[in-house]
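Help needed: design a sequence for this.
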């Protein structure tokens, strides 16, 4: 008859053997690796690579930057401004009392023809001074109205502008309008007519004469000799009857 086993001995048969420390360590490593691979808290081993930046476009040698365009616009504007200033300077400062250009003989003003037309209306003998070719006529104008006037302009041999203005009479206001700041400086007789020398502003001088039914002033920046020549030719023409007597 078999002998029954001791319950304590049976329990000790089913007791598991102790696990070595090395095995536990290996087991822990496997468990950690499992969490790293499958767990939600696992940290990625590396970040995804960034996309490569596009290469810079090569600038064409014929292209123009905003700065270049601005400089070009500034240069054009400056050039245009200087051109306009130069034109205005020539217009306002290039034309003075001294005339540098010679007028061709065929283009010279016909003072005689203008004087003939003026004499048809003027109440005084219209002067037509006989000056030689060294005197260049520049203008001949007759103004009708309450105070009709006949005006001539010549370029003298010294290249100065000489103006001759004739009317029926010459008041102080008329003299001042023709020669601002006019002041009598002396008396002179020209072709038997009593005249006065006058001096005005802007280094201009003149000679004014008064006859029977006519008056005249000759003025300009020319020297005294040229003013005398113009005044003598003017008074002589008037005393001879002007254009009507020539």
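Sure. Designed sequence:
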């Amino acid at each position: 008859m078999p002998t029954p086993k001791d319950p304590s001995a049976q329990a000790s048969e089913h007791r598991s053997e102790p696990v070595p420390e090395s095995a536990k360590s290996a087991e822990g490593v496997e468990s950690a690796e499992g969490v790293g691979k499958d767990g939600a808290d696992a940290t990625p081993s590396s970040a995804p690579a960034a996309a490569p930046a596009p290469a810079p476009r090569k600038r064409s040698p014929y292209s123009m930057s905003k700065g270049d365009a601005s400089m070009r616009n500034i240069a054009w504007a400056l050039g245009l401004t200087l051109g306009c200033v130069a034109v205005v300077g020539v217009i306002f400062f290039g034309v003075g009392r001294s005339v540098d250009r010679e007028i061709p003989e065929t283009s010279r003003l016909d003072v005689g023809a203008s004087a003939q037309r003026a004499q048809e209306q003027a109440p005084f003998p219209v002067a037509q001074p006989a000056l030689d070719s060294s005197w260049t006529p520049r203008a001949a104008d007759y103004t009708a109205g309450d105070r009709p006037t006949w005006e001539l302009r010549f370029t003298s041999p010294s290249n100065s502008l000489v103006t001759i203005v004739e009317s029926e009479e010459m008041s102080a206001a008329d003299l001042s309008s023709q020669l601002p700041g006019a002041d009598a400086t002396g008396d002179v007789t020209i072709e038997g007519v009593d005249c006065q020398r006058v001096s005005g502003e802007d280094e201009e001088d003149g000679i004014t004469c008064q006859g029977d039914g006519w008056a005249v002033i000759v003025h300009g920046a020319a020297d005294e000799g040229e003013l005398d020549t113009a005044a003598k030719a003017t008074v002589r023409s008037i005393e001879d009857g002007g254009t009507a007597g020539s």
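The longest strand covers residues 136-143.
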